[in-house]
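Quick one: structure tokens for this chain, please?
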Amino acid sequence: MKPPENKPKILYLDDEPHNITGLRAILRKEYEVIGCLSVSEAYALLKEEEYQIVVADLKLGEDDGIDFLDDIREEYPRPVKILLTAFFDFAAAVKGINKAKIFSYLFKPLNEDEVLSTIRIAHEHYLNNALLEFKQDELEKAHEELNRFVYSASHDMRAPLRSIIGIIKVAEMEGIDDRVKHYFSLIERSVNQLDAFNLNLISYFKNNKQETVIEPIDFKEIARDIFEQFQYYPGAEAINFVINTNQNEPWMGDLFRIKIIFNNLITNAIKFQRSEITNKHIIFTCDTTDSKKATLIFEDNGIGIDEEDQKRIFEMFYRATRQNSGSGIGLYIVKEALNKIGAQIRIESKPNIGTKFILEIPTKQNIEA
């Protein structure tokens, strides 16, 4: 009589037919046992359908049950593996656990209670793993959908935000009284903050998705371009931007992520300047004389960061100060981008004196995509 289709399937490899008959008799009510007498036959059966449990005898003539279970582990990771042996061999047990990741053992002669207990536990383990895998797939799917939504929404919001800024500029050109102009400036500041947050979100998602592309990099040119880009940023007009580079030839690296890092560190340095001083500065220093790495330093004389806050500034949404209404995501993005290119960052900072970020970025041969 053919077993019910919904019975869990067990593949049993043993070169002695009577052992297969014995295991099948013990498990007949709850499981469907498919027996095979050779490794080649076992491989053929594994290709045809999925099994919840695979049992293999330790001694298979010229073959070895542990080697078989180890060989199928990568291609067939789901089935729970059990080794059957006539005696307890400590060396074989260690080999089975370490090499083949065997879940459990059965011993000959077969004891019905022991067999049922071991197989039930193994099947429960299989079901738990299957449920976990399903939940993980669902979580990854939800995460991907959320990523797409936030990325798309961030892009879509940029156009109306820039339109609002444009309308404000037109209104100011038409002539408005000081009170209305003040309200418009508040609106413009809030819109710029929201737009900056959108840009950070876009950078975050691009950093996660984009593959590493190695290109020639001129650090002086990047710093100059970004400094010029920020010359009309609120507060930037009072800052002296300084570039010191020691780079005689192009350095190979991930240009996309280098620009993300520069953009966020320079933005932070501008935001957290001290309003009471007149000699505000941001100094960028670069040294590529070491063939294994580039050392970059971003230094400012802004408000600085307390020692306790320095431990957490790279956490998402963590804000070390309320002086500026930043989003708390910029330095997190910097850290994520550095992780992608295998770089290190450390900070030196004192309140009301300034902050220095020191980066060490490996050359292209040490960068992994």
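The first strand starts at residue 9 and ends at 13.
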